[in-house]
Amino acid sequence: MPDKIEREENLLGKTLKENVSLTEEELAAVNTKKGLLQLLSTKNIDVSKALATLQYERELEKLQIELVKLQRSVQLEGRRVAIIVEGRDAAGKGGTIRRFIEHMNPRSARVVALPKPTEVEKGQWYFQRYTEQLPNPGEIAFFDRSWYNRAVVEPVMNFCTEQQHRGFMQQVPEYEHMLYEDGVELIKFWFSISKDVQEERFQSRRVNPLKQWKISPVDEQAQAHWDLYTKYKEEMFSRTHTSYSPWIIVKANIKKEARLESMRYALSVLNYEGKDNAGTTLAPDPDIVVRYHRSNQSID
C-alpha cells in the first residue's frame, strides 16, 4: 500500500505543477494532499478544477496500465492491431494517440502519420502506401489519419478527381474486408467536434508558439469548407460503415473525455490477459462514444 500512496502523492504534485502556478519551493514544502489543498486555497486557485484534473490524470494512469497489458498480449499472441483516428482538423487526434502510446513499448507500438504522397506514390494503387504501414505480428499501429484522406480531405481540397474518389469508395469496404479475413483487428474512430470548438482550437494554435506548427493551409480552409466536409463525411459513413469494420464516433469537444472514453472503447473490444481484473471500468460512456447509425444526422 505505501507504493500506492506514494504514487497518488506524486501524481497530485505532478498534476498541480503542470496545471497550477506553483513554484518548486512551494511544492517541496507540502507533501500531503491536505497540505496542497490548503496552499491552493491561499493562492485563490480553483480547487475544484485542480481536483478534476487530478481525477483525469488518475483515471488516465489506470487505463494506460490496461493498455500496457493489452500490448503484452498482442506481442505474445502475434496479433495485428490497427487503430485509425480520423476527424476534422483540430479534433484532438494526435493528442489522443500520444496518451494511448505514452507508456507502451515503442518496439511494438508505432504511429503512422504519412506526408503527402510522392510523385511515385501518386502513380501507385492508392492503398499501397498504407498497406505497407499495416501492423506486423505482435504490433499495434495507430493511424493519425489514414486511407480515409481520400474520402473527405482530398475531394474537398481537390487533391483527387471525382473518378478517383468514386473508385476509392467502392474499394475501401472490400479492402477492409480483406484485412478482417486476414486477422487484422481494426478500430475506426471518428473524433467529432463542433464548428465553434474547431475555430477556438485554431485560434489557440495561432497564438501558441508551441502549436503553430500544427497550422497548415488545409486547416486554414477548414472553416470555410465546413459544409462540404460534412457532405463527404456523411457519404463516407454511409458507404464504409460495416458490421466487420464499423465507425465509432467519439464526441470530442472536451478533449480529456474523448481521450479516456476512446481508450475504454479500445480496451472493451480487444481481448487481453488480465482484462477481467482491470483496475477501472472498461465500459465507455454511451453519451461520448457511440457506433455510427445511418439515421444519425448530428455528427460533426
How would you spell out the order of helices and strands? HHHHEHEHHEHHEHHHEHE
Mind summarizing the main beta sheet? 6 strands, mixed
Low-confidence stretches: none
The separation of the N and C termini measures: 45 Å
Radius of gyration (Å): 21 Å
Beta strand %: 5-15%
Q: Would you identify the CATH H-level superfamily?
A: P-loop containing nucleotide triphosphate hydrolases
**How many discrete domains?**
1
Helix proportion range: 40-55%
**Level-1 CATH class name:** Alpha Beta
SS-based structural class?
alpha/beta
Number of strands: 6
Q: Describe it for me?
A:
- This protein has 300 residues and is of the alpha/beta class.
- The protein has one domain (78-291): P-loop containing nucleotide triphosphate hydrolases (Rossmann fold, 3-Layer(aba) Sandwich), CATH 3.40.50.
- It has helices at residues 2-19, 24-29, 33-42, 47-77, 93-101, 119-122, 128-131, 153-156, 162-181, 195-207, 217-220, 226-240, 255-269, and strands at residues 80-87, 109-112, 139-144, 185-192, 247-251, 289-291.
- Helix 4 (47-77) packs parallel to helix 13.
- The longest helix has 31 residues, at 47-77.
- The radius of gyration is 21 Å and the shape is globular.
- The mean pLDDT is 89.
